[in-house]
């Protein structure tokens, strides 16, 4: 088995959109609790593949009319397809006499690093988390944008990522960074949680390459992602019309936001209908949609369309403060023809 045979199987039989390979030496600078060898000591190659998010799945949230297409299919559903691809590619590797260890997206959910006591004898702590985005960069599939979302030459920010570790020594792909994101920072402007810093950065150094991304406020990101941000979640406002959670005043961590979302999830009927666990209610309005719009307009990616996804207007927002008569409020309705923005709370756009 060589790299070309593996890639052909993954593309032609499994149906992945892109696949790349990094040799294990490219992870030399990774901390021990994020190193592939912490999971598979004999690992020689890290295989990374992607499956695209259908552009149309983002339209419902952008229009304020339909959430399930993104949550049910392009988020939770696409993650299941990543797991299936992991399994099929892993079988192909095993059929050629090598081990395959899937490291699916679920392994990176908490992003909290190791917890619990440090094992004795030089062993690694539990909860090893490989960064699938950094792995994708090191496998030559693209780069991180300003928002820290992974960008590919074909689809920009529209993909989910799968990772497989193997003891097969495969030819690595060239690392290519610095030619997709032009630092327009529209992701920061349009993030409803104001979680993407416009100036402060985090730096990454790996395999003789250096790149920088925005410093993210992960607590605000998680509250907004789980639909606890009033400005982008009519579902939350409908169930809790009087609760005021101004994002700029929240000081929670990512894990606290995660736990808070799980605690409230069962109280929101709409969220329960979407999935069995909290999901991306924010619709990635800044980090994916605004980024995608910009890259398409500037033709900085290959997958282009005959029509623009949206115009240049800022995304819609709901009032952050409860309405004066919130006890009588039963949820916002979106009407594209409604132009009366004079209601209580300063409702923007076409919500009433």
- The helix fraction, in percent, is 25-40%
- The helix/strand series, from N terminus to C terminus, equals HEHEHHEHEEEHEEHHHHH
Helix/strand structural class: alpha+beta
What is the spatial order of strands in the main beta sheet? 1-2-6-3
Rg, please? 21 Å
The overall pLDDT, averaged over residues, is 86
Broad CATH class of the largest domain: Alpha Beta
- Specify the number of helices: 11
Profile the largest sheet: 4 strands, antiparallel
CATH architecture title of the largest domain? 3-Layer(aba) Sandwich
As for the CATH topology of the largest domain, it is: NADH Oxidase
Instruction: Tally the beta strands.
Output: 8
Shape: globular
Low-confidence stretches: 342-349
Distance between the termini: 60 Å
Give structural notes.
Strand 7 and strand 8 form a beta hairpin. This protein has two domains: 179 residues, 3-Layer(aba) Sandwich (NADH Oxidase), CATH 3.40.109; 113 residues, no CATH class. It contains eleven helices and eight strands. With 352 residues, it is an alpha+beta fold. Helices cover 30% and strands 14% of the residues. The strands form three sheets. A four-stranded antiparallel beta sheet has the order 1-2-6-3, with helices on both faces.
